[in-house]
Amino acid sequence: MLEPSERAAIIAKSLRDLLGALGASESILATAPFKVATLLQDLQFNDPAWPKLSLLKVPLSAGEHLPLVELAGLSFCSFCEHHLLPFFGEVKISYRPNPALGVASLGSLARLVQVCASRLTIQEKLTADLFAALSADLQPRELYLEIKARHLCFELTGNQRENATLCTKLSSLGTV
Questions:
Q1: What is the DSSP string of 41-102?
Q2: Which of 137, 143, 74, 70 is nearest to 102 (CA)?
Q3: 176 burial class (0-12, 13-18, 19+ CB within 10 angstroms)?
Q4: How many angstroms separate the first and last alpha carbons of the chain?
Q5: Distance from CA of residue 73 to its chain's centroid?
Q6: Are the C-beta atoms of residues 152 and 86 closer than 8 Å to each other?
Q7: Cα 154 to Cα 119, 123, 151, 165, 169, distances in angstroms
Q8: d(CA 9, CA 19)
């Protein structure tokens, strides 16, 4: 595993070569590669917490009514694995808790979204990965996941469709 400074130097050199091939000026080549390399490292692609992150759960009392739990408006930003451009939006998680495992803390759900989104991916894969992680960890009676996102690779290309959103959804009844 490379040290962060070694990694930054490799990324910056690659970016300098790329920008040079695109005809960037010397003033851009002098500063942009290092700034972008630092940004890319800050975004934590391939977060070490993935896929080991476990949700913090709060136990339920025996016989307690099991309401549908819904958390909406979880903002995220990820990067398209095809174009290396951001896509961003919101996640909605709805589930009926497994009484034996309890309910997930709100913070751990938000962290799971952040960790899953911190990789180069596509929205369909992000939806499937989040759904699989939630299913495995919570083992809910019911689970519904929805992601709505804007994709800059779609908006900036010849399509030029500002504010268009892609919505991906997965739903299932649990086995409990």
A1: HHTTTT-TTTTT----EE---TT---PPEEEEEEEEEEEETTT--EEEEEEEEEEEPBTTTB
A2: 137
A3: middle
A4: 41
A5: 14
A6: yes
A7: 19, 13, 5, 10, 20
A8: 15
H/E stretch holding 6: helix 4-21
The encoded tokens of residue 10 equal: 């490799």
Per residue of the chain (176 residues), give pLDDT as tens. Answer: 778 788 889 999 999 999 999 999 999 999 999 998 888 887 766 655 555 667 788 877 766 678 899 999 999 999 999 998 999 999 999 999 998 888 999 999 999 999 899 888 999 999 999 999 999 999 999 999 999 999 998 888 876 778 889 999 999 965 43
Which residue type occupies 108? S
